[in-house]
Amino acid sequence: MSKSAPDARPERWLAALALLAVCVISLGNVVVRYATDASFAFTEEFSVFLLVVLTFAGASLASRRHAHIRIELVEDKLPLRLRPVLYVLQWAASVLLLGLVVWYGGLLAWEEYRWESLSPGLGYPSWIYIVWLPLLCLAIIWRLTQSLLERCRACREEPRHES
């Protein structure tokens, strides 16, 4: 990573740890299955949870680095002074969607906590798995906001020479 690339260190570490844990759990399960003809009961439940954490942490990191897939044709064709308007519209649509996920994910986590629901595989409280969804969506919103401010600042500071 270059020194000028924006960073999201907590999300980077979280994603790396989640990926490492998935690899260790899966490898351990394969070794035990071949050695004993039995497998660990927890691997699927933990692996799915960790893959969700990995996905959302990676999305937050990508948001900070402007690395999400988007159609840049419109951005490139707009005059420099109009690009911040497009950036704000992109940000607002993303925040609206993620805000709904935060709201409904938070409600779901609260209901799972209140009802004392247990996970089907291991019997752990379900809210422990679900609460990460709204928390990581809040992280994505934060990183999108940082990205928006950086992109708008770049439009003001660096006039682009068109050839």
From TrEMBL:
Which keywords label this protein?
A: Cell inner membrane, Cell membrane, Membrane, Transmembrane, Transmembrane helix, Transport
* Topology with respect to the bilayer: Multi-pass membrane protein
Q: Where in the cell is it found?
A: Cell inner membrane
Primary place of residence?
membrane
Gene Ontology biological process: C4-dicarboxylate transport
The task this protein performs is described as: Part of the tripartite ATP-independent periplasmic (TRAP) transport system.
Identify the PANTHER family for this entry: 2,3-DIKETO-L-GULONATE TRAP TRANSPORTER SMALL PERMEASE PROTEIN YIAM, TRAP TRANSPORTER SMALL PERMEASE PROTEIN
Quaternary structure annotation from Swiss-Prot or TrEMBL? The complex comprises the extracytoplasmic solute receptor protein and the two transmembrane proteins.
The protein in question is named: TRAP transporter small permease protein
